[in-house]
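Researcher: Next sequence.
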Amino acid sequence: MPEDIERTAEAHLTYVIVNWTAPTVTDNTETVTLTSDYNNTGSVFDIGVTLVTYTAIDAYGNVAEETFLVIVNRKCDYRLRKYLLTSDFSQDN
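Model: Next structure:
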């Protein structure tokens, strides 16, 4: 199972494309079905935290689930950073 994955989206984007190696499944039955709520090749993830779940089901209906997080941060544009650091947001009432 992959470890949690953390990426940073470019300042002009609100998403990243993430790839990982899918887990392998072994069981003492001949048939195991592995499913996931995301594709391990080129899935698009928006800024934020997403839980990715893999589910394995064997021929007898036994179920195992494993999860990991995909964390996407926003890269701050240097012009915005400069503005935020040099601006006075106080208000005189």
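Model: The first strand starts at residue 5 and ends at 9. The two ends are 56 Å apart (CA to CA).
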